[in-house]
Fold this protein.
Amino acid sequence: MAVQAVTILGSTGSIGKSTLDVIGQHPDRYSVFALTANSQVELLLQQIQAYNPRYAVMASEESAEQLRSNTRQLGLETEILAGVEGLSRVASHVDVDVVMAAIVGAAGLLPTLAGAKAGKKILLANKEALVMTGQLFMDAVRDNGAELLPIDSEHNAVFQCIHGSRSDSLLDLGINKITLTASGGPFRDTPINQLKDVTPDMACAHPNWSMGRKISVDSASMLNKGLELIEACWLFSASPDQVEAVLHPQSIVHALVSYIDGSVLAHLGNPDMRVPIAAAMSWPERISSGVAPLNLVDIAQLDFYQPDLDRFPCLRLSMEAMKAGNLATVVLNAVNEVAVEAFLQRKIRFTDIPIVLEEMLGRAVNRPLDTISAVLEQDQLARIETEKWVVDRSGRL
């Protein structure tokens, strides 16, 4: 079997590091073509030393120059690039076989799309790409012969339960519902009246998963699960009423697929992202992920609950945006990214996140977003309005 060359968009994040761990276990199957990072120069330098990629990319030219200086001093031959142009170049390079799309947020959209347009095998951990562009992204995958494999544990679980089958309709596959599970995060049982006092560190203390701060806040608000429901509609040709979320505190069952004959297939596994990463990288084969086998006797109990939409208004707003269409989902994502960053900087409260989401979604004027430029324009407009709201709000705290 030929060795597959892998570009990792976002190699210094939790998904990127887990991907490198899986690659390191299978040097006969995978090699690292390119690594990219936002600002962590020192960590990316360590990864370059360990994996010797042909390219490395930093978000800014300033960080790239710092990394160039460091690699020259060490005699490393990795070529250092910068910015969206550099990210897109390493995602679409003719010598690349696989692109792990793990850059968080809208910043990952254009390089991920470049990989799809180049016909690559896309391992999609950047849910925002589909939330923002929907049909445009799926068309790029189809029209350019790319292969799209989901990395989020829930979507990967669905993919495995349906054995990778694709159709224009779930009913064509005999499926009537997809259920994604959610742990409920750190505030599943916190009295609602105490949520206004939540600090960034409290919101980032996820009980089951190790993630970056932005995703951890999204998980705490369950906005992340809302984005996943939207993504599931695009990945599996599902209508909004065919996807749902349930709380499952143990994070052992990652998704369930209900069939029209009454059967329900569930995917179970320890909460470690190396499991879906290994499954997607090797699909339709199987390789070791380095994760210990699941022991249900030790787990002993699996609980499931309906999410409380009063406790998690971000989930409700996500579901409403999903039904409203692409403009609403673009606004939802853009506003949330600005609001979460403002919360992490202590400019607004945790409970302000759903407030600004609802206000900005209410302001949005519906219009077709049938080009990437239109999507990016709407994204920018929503960010500007949200930043104004944050300034006003922070001045009154």
